[in-house]
Structure formats: C-alpha cells, structure tokens
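Morning!

This is the sequence you dropped in the shared folder:
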Amino acid sequence: VQLQASGGGFVQPGGSLRLSCVVSGFTLPFYPMAWYRQAPGNQRELVAVVETSGQKNYADSVKGRFIIARDFTDNTMDLYMNSLKPEDTAVYYCNRHPALTVWGQGTLVTVSS
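The structure's back. Tokens below.
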C-alpha cells in the first residue's frame, strides 16, 4: 500500500491550496477516506472524512473552509483548502478511515504572512 499526498506549499493567510492524494494497493472508492494533519509539537488529527456513501464530515476547525473530494473513477482524492489560517500550518496526510498503520510522507502546508 502506498499513500502519496502532494500539493502543499507556502501561502499567505486567506489563501487557498489544493492537496491531492494518490493511492495504490487498494481501490480507494471502496473505503472511507480521510485527510489528517500534524502540526509541529502536536498529535496527528483528523481533518476531513468522506464515506463510501459520499457523506462528508469535517473537524470543527476547518468546517466551511475545506472541502474533501474523491474521484470515483480512479484512485485519487483531493482536499480544497480555502481561507487558510496560520493554525492550518501542518503536514497533511491522506489515509483510510480508520487509518492504516502505513502512512505516506505527507505534504507540508505553511500559512504565514
């Protein structure tokens, strides 16, 4: 199994980024999927989940600003992040939900002026 997140970068507060996740080793649409993040000094936290039904759930801290989206035609998933805040700075990971023990390297998002 491989989980590859990409799309991170440096952005000013109020800006937007789109993260992408490509998986191999399993068929993404068959499983609940999620984005997680880990800020420096903090534990990894759940950001957004998309169920196999298409239902989406978000952490209160990102609700209304982030959108999780999955492509049912291939093994990819995105996270659209808008109105970014400095507290969104973290390494972002994609994984199943509940998460597998395998994690990718993640992609770093830095929000700063």
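Headline: Strands lie at 2-6, 9-11, 17-24, 33-38, 45-50, 56-58, 66-71, 76-81, 90-96, 107-111.

More detail when I'm at my desk.
O.
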